Amino acid sequence: MNRALKLTACALALLPLIPANAQSTHGIAVANMDTAVKPGDNFYLYANGDWIKHTEIPADRGGIGVFTTLADLSNKRTADLIEEAAKSSASAGSGQRKIADLYNSYMDEAGIETKGLAPIRPHLDAIAAIHDKTQLARALGETLRGDVDPLNNTNFHTANLFGLWVAPGFEDSDHYTAYLLQGGLQLPDREYYVSDSQHMRDLRTKYQAHIAAMFKLAGFDDAEARAAHVVELEHSIAEKHIPLDENEDIHKANNTWQQSDFAAKAPGLDWNEYFQGAGLTKQSSFIVWQPTAFAGESALVASISLDAWKDWLAYHLIESYAGILPKAFADERFAFFGQALSGTPQQRPRWQRGVFVVNGLLGDEVGKLYAQRYFPPQAKAEAQAMVANIIAAFRKRIDALTWMAPATKAEAQAKLTTLYVGIGYPETWRDYSALEIKSDDIFGNVWRSSFFEYHHEIGRLGSSVDRQEWCMTPQTVNAVNLPLQNALNFPAAILQPPFFDPQAPAAVNYGAIGSVIGHEISHTFDSEGAAFDSKGRVRNWWTPEDLAHFNAATAKLAAQYDTYMPFPDLHVNGKQTLGENIADVAGIAAAYDGYHASLDGKAAPKQDSFTGDQQFFIAFGQNWGSKAREASLRQQIVGDPHSPAEYRADTVRNIDAWYAAFDVKPGEKLYLAPPDRVRIW
After folding, report:
1. Separation between Cα atoms, residue 123 and residue 127, nearest integer Å
2. Contact, 425 vs 491, CB < 8 A?
3. Multiple choice CATH, 17-55+376-424+478-676, 3.40.390.10, 3.60.15.10, 1.10.3090.10, 1.20.210.10
4. pLDDT tens digits, residue range 331-383?
5. pLDDT tens digits for 92-103?
6. Rounded to the nearest 5 degrees, what angle is found at the Cα of 64, between the Cα atoms of 661 and 421?
7. Is 336 helix (H, G, I), strand (E, B) or coil?
8. What is the rounded CA–CA span in Å between residue 549 and residue 281?
């Protein structure tokens, strides 16, 4: 998903794979540790080494950990809820009946095979009938109206030249506005097209072969030539894209264009036809995130042949719906995106993919059932108490900053005062009553759902912002910070062991879920979040001196992460991952303070001779232990704003209390002299 959506979209993956932590005790997973490793040499292996040695990655995964374990548990629970809905006497059109009918339509493999390409054929024929660039512009706008891809779990804009995002405005955070974003690529990031590394060249060759295979399956002639056209066109688009590490500057993204400006600022595309096709003729202005990309991509509409664009449209349509076409399409898609791109040998079972579809299209309908069944009021109250403690700790940390002026501190405190923290599930649920779901029409269900979602989004344009609106479902194992709303979401599915266990010692809960909570709170003040004020507006609330100090400290952290090299030919991009790294450092510091405040002066209980502080840091380290296949890890490094799990665990090297807890000395590999430790908040 485009990085702009980090500011408010559900798809943000804040948590990488985390280690399996199956145990009967309520505390740190001592059996997962490798205590032969010095904490100061490799804290990641110290906390997770034995688990890493004895765990195999399942054939249908690019990696494994507690995140995947909890996601599997959530999916199994969701499947059980779906099965119950199917057996219930729910009336036609009810939420439970929609859930059952959608799932059953996906699981009807025989029916899908019988229909073959019939469901998608009219849409392919419409693309084939395009005879000039004016009609092309209308068709490109229409692709924006089908802006949902629950089946393939890929970038939201894969079938669109540009992407639409509806969110609070940068300047007017009280009303929803329209953002337009660079798009048009099927591979995860522009680097996959422009990098000259052998690994990327090999992937491009395989990608072109995959496109040709998809065209052949769909009955197109000259499949190889068409595939070459698509790859060449996407390469040209990628050259116009803003690189991921340059896409973080909110101020550079804050560009308001009137609809009448597009023809002059981005010539080449018939914008009147484009907006007509997108159903956006009444929207007078847009925030254009990457102006140079818009100018570049629009020029390509004029300069690239009509036939190449038609091949591009046809391929992207086929790819987007491959998961609900006959099995040969889904298998071919997985052969490239699963096996070649991510290194995953085996596809997920169909029932699991069916759960993904139901969660993608009817997420809140399932969420109602999930929250009622699996998240009791007591769990919500305990999580809320922990959040309150960590916010209080953050307040004290801000007050204690010696480098920050009183005026800046007051603005920072105001952000904490107005911060909305959603725990478990939303206050209001989505209404799906207008969405038609049929038990024997999976293609139609997904097609109608995409338009249903799109019309929901554009229907919000100009309306007042709901600052308590959620972007995640209760059954999602994740968490998110929403700077434009000044809000956090912690879904029910992540608020369970090993992240959150009401029976575990405070040290473990604060080190595990507490550091995640601290991480999300800290995003309010990371390299992006710090650009927003307490009302979610883009506004500079810093004194020049304070901002200079903040930028120097964050640059120091970026340089630290630049030194991490998972592979000889690939290092972590400290600028690309900066926001997440800031949140990790500040989050664990705030969680540590919150933990000590929770003790109320009492001594912490030991576990297997580990002190309370040691348990806290080990629990944090065990948040990030994982095993990933090389292809998956490379994909993360190139296209993800999060650092690999190992380096997230090693964040502790910036925390003074960690050195005292484990008696870390100079000469040990993770040791940083006090002046070299990054302290931001």
Report:
1. 7
2. yes
3. 3.40.390.10
4. 999 999 999 999 999 999 999 999 999 999 999 999 999 999 999 998 899 89
5. 889 999 999 999
6. 65
7. helix
8. 45
Structure tokens, 348: 């997920």
Size of the chain, expressed as the number of residues it contains: 681
> What is the number of other CB atoms lying within 10 angstroms of the CB of residue 43?
28
**657 vs 654: CA distance, rounded Å:** 9
pLDDT in tens, 428-458: 999 999 999 999 999 999 999 999 999 999 9
In 221-312 the beta strands, taken as DSSP E runs, fall at 256-258, 285-288
Cα Rg of the chain (Å, integer): 25
Q: Where are the beta strands (DSSP E) in 360-472?
A: 420-424
- Calpha distance 498→504 (Å, rounded): 9
- The residue assigned the tokens 């059952």 is 100
Helix axes 377-400, 515-523, angle to 10 degrees: 60
| Structure token digits, residue 655 | 């925390």
In 10 A of CB 543, how many CB atoms?
15
pTM metric for this prediction: 0.89
Cβ distance 160 to 143 under 8 Å? yes
What is the spatial distance between Cα 592 and Cα 681, in angstroms, rounded to a whole number?
13
* Residues 184-243 pLDDT 10s: 999 999 999 999 999 999 999 999 999 999 999 999 999 999 999 999 999 999 999 999
Question: Do residues 68 and 17 touch, judged by C-beta distance below 8 A?
Answer: yes
- The SS3 call for residue 62 is coil
For residue 626, report the phi and psi dihedrals to the nearest 5 degrees: -160, 165
Q: Where are the domains of the chain?
A: 17-55+376-424+478-676, 121-320
Strand partners for 424: 491
The two domains 17-55+376-424+478-676 and 121-320 share their CATH topology (first three levels equal):
no
DSSP calls for 598-660: HHTTPPPPPBTTB-HHHHHHHHHHHHH--EE-HHHHHHHHHH-SSPPHHHHHGGGGG-HHHHH
Alpha carbon separation from 590 to 394, 597, 604, 620 (Å, rounded): 6, 11, 18, 13
Chain-centroid distance of CA 540 in Å reads 27
Please enumerate in sequence order all residues whose Cβ is within 8 A of that of 36, keeping only pairs 6 or more positions apart, or say none.
49
Return the CATH number of 121-320, one of 3.40.1390.10, 1.10.1380.10, 1.10.10.10, 2.60.34.10: 1.10.1380.10
Which phi-psi region, left, alpha or beta, contains residue 222 (left: φ > 0; alpha: ψ -120 to 50)?
A: left
